[in-house]
Amino acid sequence: TAASGLGGPGGAAGLLGSGGAGGAGGAGHLGGQGGAGGAAGLIGGGGAGGPGGLSAGGTGGAGGYGGLGGSLLGSGGPAGPGAEATPGHSGGNGGIGGSALLIGNGGNGGNGGYSTTLNLLGRPGTIGTGGWLIGDNGIPGLPMSPNLLVNGSFEFASPSTTGFSSVTVPGWTVTGTPTIVPYGTPLTYPSPTSTPFPTVPNFLGLGFPGNPAPGAGSNFAGGGPVATSSISQTVNLAAATANINTGTVPYTLSGLLGGYLLDPSSTTVQVTFLNGNGVALGTGSIGPVSTIDRLGMTGFQARDISGTIPVGTTQAVVTATFTDRNPILGNYNGSFADNLSFTVGDPTLAAPMLTVPTSNVGQLDHVYLIYMENKGAYDILGSVNAPYLNSLINSYGYANNYYALGHPSDPNYFRVMGGSDFGLIYNPASPSINAPSLMEAMDNAGVSWVGYAQGMPYPGAIVSQGDYAVDALPFAQFTYVYNNTPTYLQTHLQPLTQLSVDLQSTATTPRFSWIAADGAYNMEGPVDFPGGAANWLASQLTNHQYNVAAGDQFLQQTVSTIQNSASWNTNAANARSAIFITFDEDYNNLSLGIGNQGNLINMVVIPNDAAVTFGGMQSGHFVTNTRYDHYGLMSTLEYALSPTAGTPLTTLTYNDKYALPLNDFWT
Questions:
Q1: What GO annotations for molecular function exist for this entry (predicted)?
Q2: Where do you find CATH 2.60.120.260 in the chain?
Q3: 321 pLDDT exceeds 80?
Q4: 503-507 long-range CB contacts below 8 Å, 24 or more apart?
Q5: Distance (Å, rounded) from C-alpha 503 to C-alpha 506?
Q6: What is the pLDDT of residues 262-312, one digit of tens each?
Q7: Of 175, 162, 96, 93, which Cα lies nearest the Cα of 129?
Q8: Which residues lie closer than 8 Å to 558 by C-beta, 6 or more apart?
Q9: Are 651 and 642 in contact (CB under 8 A)?
Q10: What is the pTM of this model?
């Protein structure tokens, strides 16, 4: 339907059968009216009226009329709802419910569209009449609330400009690794080398959705680079309890759902109504939109459902589930959603505001980040080749639901220092990023930092040599560091052997230390050819244990060096320290197309006594099942290294600003 156009009418039924639903009105300056539901023939229900079109700059579209019921037997179709208006304009009027003729109920009147100006609320639609012989009249519509979902159109985001990177979804609680992608993003697969794969021309129809659906903005949400994922929000309906308990308050759940070409992955959205004790009272859902529904084409289709909110409801949980059914290419999840909306029949409810997640991360004087390579969580848990790391997991705080955010390796380093993968889904040569970074923020705040790399031939090395690879640390990828002075580089990039020297006192220990193993000890590999390469390949296809024992040895030596140092063992208010041990990604480089661990990786956090006594960190062994990721780690660093308690050192993108910090490691 063209912008502002009238939705197409539903098809009329023949002798038997129901009329088709009317199409949605077009989006434009003024929303278009929804199409009328098709009339039934002799026996059958009238089609539902189409919803009014969203308004891009004025009055919302009116709902379509419900179709007439069958002349002998059949109920009238429900009317379509009016659309929400832009601020200061009138909401769309609800459509008129279809009438039954002889036997059957009248269709419900359409709900009125919301307006920010209460006297401009859309008028509820007229009800359809029941059949002359038997049948009840329809239920009147009500003026509706604004959309009660935060960021339902996914415009507040730092989207993945490749589609192959999971990003923070502001306002939503997530599972797995969902993403937000700009419309028109071309298709390029991740490359495990320093050379990117070619971009597939969009004119072949192989890119991500190119043209926003009517009423959509610049971005849409998707299942993300691997595995099934979901996003959810809890909507507080307590202010409408009195009305809800009359049993007459309607709701509408709607959205644009879609997918990619022949990928059978799909999206469903469900609302679950809960009482004050968290007991489910009822549900409603839309989707999925199947490959057949889309005729095998990339794109979206509108879906909506309306009903009555169960008596006793105090809150509603809306969950969009992106179900991965892709059998190839490492299981990219090509299911999409946009313009998700949940409205109820109470226009006094206020639209929620987007807020930054609460942080209880305390300040730390010394943070040690040890980044290992290419092992999924279950490659390590219980592994006979990693007894030391397992002993740490069983002795300190462990995040059991921690995710890397994409493939290959290097972009997972950039994310922690820059808040983005910067559209890089390969391992680029240095430098590759000209953007603000945590290094610059730390320098501006007087926070000392050093990257320690095993095998670095001399301080300040920004050229790979021998066992040292420049990308073992993320810093030289940023022009701010790479193009700095030799003195600056020598201060901030050090051989790992310097760590034990710096740990001799709290005064010489950097506030932030990133510690990297070389290729022989980082758990990735292969480290030699052809034997090592053959063993690595066999490990990729079996139990993923290549190089695990060497990495475990590295961790034992490095963590012991820190824990035996004078700096670590100073129990004072200015010596609060913690070690964070994690991995860049799981074993599956997406472009290899083998296996799928969902990018679930290990994260163990080790505080010293001072961090527990003076910094409020949790002590001893515990496991948290809260979902965290690399952007949450970045947010944690921003709070822990800030000179002002409770205020982050900086925020660089929506990804770190709205990521959930690792709160469970503090009391």
A1: hydrolase activity, acting on ester bonds
A2: 173-344
A3: yes
A4: 503/561, 503/562, 503/565, 503/566, 503/567, 503/568, 504/565, 504/566, 504/567, 505/566, 505/567, 506/365, 506/366, 506/566, 506/567, 506/570, 506/572, 506/574, 506/575
A5: 7
A6: 999 999 999 999 999 999 999 999 999 999 999 999 999 988 888 899 999
A7: 96
A8: 370, 496, 499, 515, 517
A9: no
A10: 0.87
Rounded distance between C-alpha atoms, residue 132 and residue 329, angstroms: 60
Beta strands in 226-382 (DSSP E): 229-236, 250-259, 266-274, 280-286, 299-308, 315-323, 333-344, 366-372
Q: Which two tokens stand for residue 9?
A: 């009418």
Q: Where in the chain is the domain with CATH 3.40.720.10?
A: 366-665
CATH number for the region 173-344 comes to 2.60.120.260
Q: 366-665: what CATH class?
A: alpha beta
Cis bond upstream, residue 530 (ω within 30): yes
3-state secondary structure of 516: strand
416-474 pLDDT, tens digit per residue, is: 999 999 999 999 999 999 999 999 999 999 999 999 999 999 999 999 999 999 999 99
pLDDT tens-digit profile of 575-597?
999 999 999 999 875 555 566 78
4/26 Cα distance (integer angstroms)? 4
250 in helix, strand or coil? strand
Distance in angstroms (rounded) separating the CA atoms of residues 157 and 168: 7
Residue 225: what pLDDT? 87
Contact 602, 381 (CB under 8 A): yes
